[in-house]
Write a structure and sequence with these properties.
Largest sheet: 3 strands, antiparallel
Order of helices and strands: HHHEHHEEHHH
Low-confidence stretches: none
Helix content: 55-70%
Radius of gyration: 22 Å
Shape: globular
Length: 173
């Protein structure tokens, strides 16, 4: 092993020791500091989703529009401000996304029953179908990638779905 390799290894050991000390200290205080593996997982999940979106175009839907459709699929109707907070994006960005979705017949605005000055947004049957098409296309792209793994690895990844869903829903509770 060369001197450069030893320096890299020593730096990695020092980083791990510092990280472990920070995590131990945080645990002693009742808080949690994500370690490098957790950060790597977050980055990997973002990269995977971005690459699946590129591999399976969403029928000219923007990412914000797909997120808005999925939020409306879970809870419809919703106000634009509520959608903006949950996407998250600015109110003008959410308004533009909803206007584009409405123009395509994927959502419908209607008077908010609790406030006559406001409107609610409801997912249409066409919107649910468009969201399903996006999900199917991305699932097909993921299945192709899972096919590059050995069967045990592919099963391990797929078995994480209920846990990832639980983590995703933790914010909704």
């Amino acid at each position: 092993m060369g001197a450069e390799d030893a320096d890299v290894r020593d730096a990695a050991v020092r980083d791990a020791d510092v990280r472990d000390a920070v995590v131990r200290d945080a645990d002693a205080q009742g808080t949690y500091v994500p370690d490098a593996q957790v950060r790597d997982l977050v980055v990997s999940l973002h990269r995977l989703m971005r690459s699946l979106r590129r591999a399976a175009p969403a029928g000219r839907l923007q990412p914000t529009q797909v997120i808005a459709l999925s939020l409306l699929y879970e809870k419809s109707p919703a106000r634009i401000g509520e959608l903006a907070a949950r996407v998250p994006c600015s109110q003008p960005t959410a308004t533009a996304a909803i206007a584009a979705l409405e123009a395509r017949g994927l959502v419908r605005r209607e008077p908010d029953p609790s406030d006559g000055r406001a409107s609610s947004v409801r997912l249409t049957a066409r919107g649910a179908e468009a969201l399903s098409e996006v999900a199917i296309a991305e699932a097909e792209a993921l299945a192709a990638r899972l096919g590059t793994l050995d069967p045990e690895q592919a099963r391990a990844v797929v078995s994480l779905a209920p846990l990832l869903r639980r983590l995703a829903e933790a914010d909704d509770a």
